[in-house]
Amino acid sequence: MEILLDTANIEAIEKYAAALPLAGVTTNPSILKKEGNIEFFSHMRKIREIIGTNRSLHVQVVAQDKAGMVKDAKTLLEQLDQEIYIKVPANEVGLEAIKELKSEGLNVTATAIYSKFQAYLAIAAGADYIAPYFNRMENIGIKAPEAIAAMANEIQQSASKTKIVAASFKNVDQVTTALEEGAQAVTVAPDIIKQALAMPSIAQAVEDFAVDWESIFGKNSTIASLKI
Ligand SMILES: O=C[C@H](O)COP(=O)(O)O
């Protein structure tokens, strides 16, 4: 399982790169908008500096024609680094761009996936990752768990190296469902991770252990502070 952060927020990336077994960071223009008036390339370089090159950084093209998408991709590689995963929407022109980028051996993430058909085409085009939009699919009546299971099945049947990085989550149940249905990776906004780990029952269990320990060994004692 790979867990990625779906954010461009520097503090959140610093925090969760330290706290989690983080596999990478994904961004798109809507995610960037939340950070206000940023300088694009230096902001992306800062993210790379925090996560290093062992974690993947996925950055989306914005041109809407194939030549422009390829040009955006090349600019990202020149200005950032060669390890960047180029996010390309899996529409008609995007699929053409994906084929070209893959023929040059570049890392590609096919994004904005709402249907099995888009996913199958992106897998056949050789995308490294495909990003089905879980919550957005559910919002338009597409059963995301079933679609992800079908995508995972297609990857297996075609012995493809493509991985599913499920995206667009609104709660942690959607995240675990995506993984259970066969997604190899999930990209999750920081607030969902925070919510999931801030369950009152977890805090209560930790508090109960502390009280029981203190009742035996005294206040503020830890294992390391015991006399040996
Ligand atoms: O990169 C894609 C995002 O995960 C989409 O998420 P959203 O539905 O919250 O905008």
From TrEMBL:
Keyword Isomerase: no
InterPro entries, alphabetized: Aldolase_TIM (IPR013785), TAL/FSA (IPR001585), Transaldolase_AS (IPR018225), TSA/FSA_arc/bac (IPR033919)
Pfam families linked to this entry: TAL_FSA
Entry keyword annotation includes DNA damage: no
CDD domains, per the entry: Transaldolase_FSA
Keywords in alphabetical order: Schiff base
Localization terms from the record: Cytoplasm
Superkingdom of source: Bacteria
Protein name: Fructose-bisphosphate aldolase
Taxonomic lineage from the root: Bacteria, Bacillati, Bacillota, Bacilli, Lactobacillales
